[in-house]
Fold this protein.
Amino acid sequence: MTGVEDPDSRAHSPNESLHLGVFQRALLSEAVFLARLDARSEDS
């Protein structure tokens, strides 16, 4: 869910990188997901 990675990320290497725009969209997606999940638990 929170792992944002593309071929240029070079994950876990000394020159690892992350595109900030992609990271921002991932954070927004996770926030929306958690808010909707919380709303579902309140309906039960």
Notes: The longest helix spans residues 20-43. The chain has a mean pLDDT of 86.
